[in-house]
Amino acid sequence: MTAERPAIVDIHQDEVLTGEAVALDVQPLGYFLRALGVLIDMVLGVVVLLLFAWGVGWLLSIDAVDPAVVPILTIVVLVLVMVVIPTVVETTTRGRSLGRLAVGGRIVRVDGGAAGFRHAFIRALVGVFELWFTVGAVAALVGAFTPRSQRLGDLLAGTYSERTRTPRLPDVNLGIPLTLTEWAAVADVARLPERLSRRLAQFARSAVNMEPTARARVAASLAQEASEHVSPVPAVDNETFLIGVVAVRRERELRALQLETARADALAGPVSSAPRGFPTR
What is the DSSP code (8-state) at residue 175? Predict the structure, then answer.
């Protein structure tokens, strides 16, 4: 008797594997939205620098400050605007900034965990070169050729910008048939193509309004296609099989979305005492 080989699960580029071995479909922030968020943050920094320049000019006009001190103050303000303030804001808000709040993003580690001081400091330090010294040209170039629109600071810090404005959780209107309760606990529907999954869901919603002959014919055709991607295939009629597949897939997608939402809330809230990577029960 030969031992069965363990099943191999493909983790895609935008998925995060949680401590319960659940792959979450985590969406990175798009290139242009991320560029807009960076632009907003940089504009705010420029405003601070202009206010500083105006204040120094006013103090010099009334002889309230020694001109020899101006270069020192300028360097201090530049360091504050380019490194200190971004690091403090990103650390205290757990990956947020005014620009990222506007576009719906958050900086997280590549494993989906919350970014800390080290990540924020590396990003801010590298940002002095790739954002300020090159007016964002290096960040734009690197981000255009990375899968998650990561800039150079992200690659060095091991972070990326995660989309926080996720779609509303789907309504659950199809339950698992009673005859498939035991099958649903062990069914593997992860290999079902997305396009075929949508066709199955559409059939399950509209089957009651279809003419019986056409309904049976479509059910048989869809069941034949779905059986190639579902294991094991239960010994039930075609329509019951399709409803069971749709219900199991929707239930697992709903659970994954709930886990992702809970993880996003945990990133936005206070640091939990539980180890990183494991959901709090």
Answer: P
Alpha-carbon span 149 to 147, nearest angstrom: 6
CB 146 within 8 A of CB 155: yes
SS3 content of the chain, % helix, strand, coil (to 5): 60, 5, 35
Side-chain-facing half-sphere of 68: CA atoms under 13 Å = 0
How far is the CA of 15 from the CAs of 11, 25, 84, 267, 279, in angstroms?
6, 5, 32, 17, 16
- CB under 8 Å to 266, separation ≥6 — which residues? 114, 272, 279, 280
- Cross-strand partners of 109: 159
What distance in Å separates the CA atoms of residue 189 and residue 227, rounded to the nearest whole number?
A: 10
Mean pLDDT in the chain?
Answer: 81
- Kindly report the pTM of this predicted structure: 0.56
Q: Give the pair of three-digit tokens for residue 64.
A: 């309230």
Q: Where do the domains of the chain lie?
A: 31-163, 170-268
Q: Which residues are 277's β-sheet partners?
A: none
Tell me the C-alpha distance between 79 and 108, whole Å: 24
pLDDT tens digits for range 16-61:
544 444 445 567 888 999 999 999 999 999 999 999 989 888 887 8
d(CA 259, CA 267): 12
Q: 196 with 225: CB under 8 angstroms?
A: yes
* Joined tokens for residue 281: 């029960």
CA nearest to 242, candidates 191, 207, 194 = 207
Which segments of the chain have a pLDDT < 50?
A: 1-14, 17-23, 169-172, 271-281
Please give the Cα distance from 14 to 24 (Å, whole number).
Answer: 8
Beta strand extents in the chain (DSSP E only): 15-17, 23-25, 105-109, 159-163
